[in-house]
Design a protein that fits this description.
The protein starts with a strand and ends in a 7-residue tail after the last strand. By secondary structure, it is an alpha/beta fold. Helix content is about 35%, strand content about 25%. The structure holds glycinamide ribonucleotide.
């Protein structure tokens, strides 16, 4: 059984989509063993209570450096024997402490077709630019902001009268559809990161 920690800062709809997918699979292969949240007021904490996921809430501003902050998180991950980190709306750049410990075992989801529109407010950036197609990217995490080898992308069209709310609904639907299955493929080693590239090791029809 591989143990996953989900990192989130906000609403947690992706966290819940992951949990629901793994529950309906009744998977013996993976479990979400920990939620790490850096925002004490985040709604994801309520969702985690509902699903009884052990939750670690930590405020960065209480630490003098990113290293000190991440060292405390790393201890929690080690205590819970976490194998893999999944970022799901975690609005903070990972530092070298977590990257060195988990390089190749960290996934992120981002609401644009990277490398377009990295960072915060990807939807706002896409609408402002006026692109007619945008989408989602699931990628392994490296030192950069929304960089790292890409595992999966999928697209949505931006219609003439698209609003941020309607675009967010389309994007989230796609995220919830793809993230659980992609996580499973990466955690079970079907897809791996090697020499900063994505490699498919074997095919499986699971999920
Ligand atoms: C998701 O759309 C995710 O792609 C985005 O935050 C949202 C979190 O939603 N992540 C980023 O923008 C990372 N740069 P959720 O809290 O409902 O899962």
């Amino acid at each position: 059984m591989k143990k996953i920690a989900v990192f989130a800062s906000g609403s947690g709809s992706n966290y819940e989509a992951i949990i629901e997918a793994f529950h309906s699979l009744d998977s013996q292969q993976v479990e979400v063993s920990l939620l790490v949240c850096d925002k004490p007021q985040a709604y994801v904490i309520e969702r985690a209570q509902k699903w009884a996921t052990p939750t670690f809430v930590i405020s960065a501003k209480e630490y003098e450096s990113k290293e000190a902050f991440e060292t405390v998180i790393l201890k929690e991950l080690e205590k819970a024997n976490i194998d893999f980190i999944v970022l799901a709306g975690y609005m903070r750049l990972l530092g070298s402490t977590l990257l060195q410990a988990y390089m190749g075992r960290i996934l992120n989801i981002h609401p644009s077709l990277l490398p377009a529109f990295p960072g915060k407010d990807a939807l706002g950036q896409a609408l402002e630019y006026g692109v007619k197609v945008t989408g989602i990217t699931i990628h392994f995490v490296d030192e950069g902001m929304d960089t790292g080898p890409i595992v999966l992308q999928d697209t949505v069209t931006i219609d003439l009268h698209e609003t941020k709310t309607s675009l967010a609904q389309k994007i989230q639907k796609l995220e919830h559809q793809h993230y659980p299955a992609t996580i499973l493929q990466c955690v079970t080693g079907e897809i791996v990161m090697e020499e900063r590239k994505v490699k498919w090791v074997q095919k499986s029809n699971e999920l």
